[in-house]
Specification:
Structural class: alpha/beta
CATH topology of the domain at 10-198 and 295-353: Metallo-beta-lactamase, Chain A
Number of helices: 11
CATH architecture of the domain at 10-198 and 295-353: 4-Layer Sandwich
Oligomer: single chain
Distance between the termini: 30 Å
Largest sheet: 7 strands, mixed
Shape: globular
Amino acid sequence: MAMDHVDISRRGFVGSIGLAMAAGAAVPGWAGAGMWTGDDHGEPPAEGGAAYFEWSEVRPGIWVAIGGGGNVLACAPEGGGRKRGLVVDTKNGGLGLILKNEAEARLGTDIWAAVNTHHHGDHVGGNSVFTPMRVFAHERAQARVRSMNRMLRDRVFGMTDAVMNDAAQSDAVKAWAREERKSMDRIDAEDFVPTHAMGKVGVVERLPIVPDLPVEVRHFGAGHTDTDVVLRFEDDNVLHVGDLVFNGLHPFVDPDGGATVRGWVKSLRECEKLCDAETVVVPGHGPVGDVEIVRGQIGYLESLIEAVRAEIDAGVPVEEAAEKSWAFMDGLGFERIRPRAIAGVYAELERESGD
């Protein structure tokens, strides 16, 4: 496929995929119809209206929201008996309040806290809605998110405009977007920054805020970014791996965010060890799956390393290599970021060899 010039900066990537997913460009395999469930907690969208996100219940009391940014997991036990709900990731800016209200309606309980799987804007953009409670993230994510304040604020204005001007959205969804937009008048840079740090390499941590919800938090070192954390819901056999897995999509490689594809593969090997045949794996983007989507991402990255190494050995310049494609890349989404994945690996391998 011929490639036109694209913005492969983080800002360009997140802006394009966030809006595309919000518009329904993603085709998740586990996504539900997205219709209101009739729960009596929280305000529903307009009578009989569709929810903003595509929601599916992957285990009793554990929901996944697809669209509008990275995949979000919202959890409470079967029957909504937990008194404290949790969300993993907070979508793009401008969608945080919509996420909170739709999640609470499904869980039948208040959201008590959020966790960011890493610092990218499509996973932390809604943080300002949740920091009045608490937001957990890797310790490096605090400084990284703080430095992104201008971009995150801009995205709130852009996304809320898109929602409020979308005739397909319910009055309630538009009202939530309008309320989040108004909140920008009273928040500052710190309101996007995670409030609680975690993520020591080799240390299994547990979230202290929901005692009846056993959640392991692990950081395996730099991979997709240097702020990746993986959450394992022990009793439910569910693993949220964040952007360590792009299921059915080309992965975003972000050297400025601490990415290392070698480390990424190592992190995925550790994720694989946490899975059995019954584990539900929630990727950062793409359909929910099982351990095979972890193995698929390992295969893609290892194949990419091998292919790019051959290009370097043959003396092919990075600009030319980045326009290539190989069989393992066929049929994947996020085609426009394929060149960046190749270029990122090229730069990493050159650093390794001192070229």
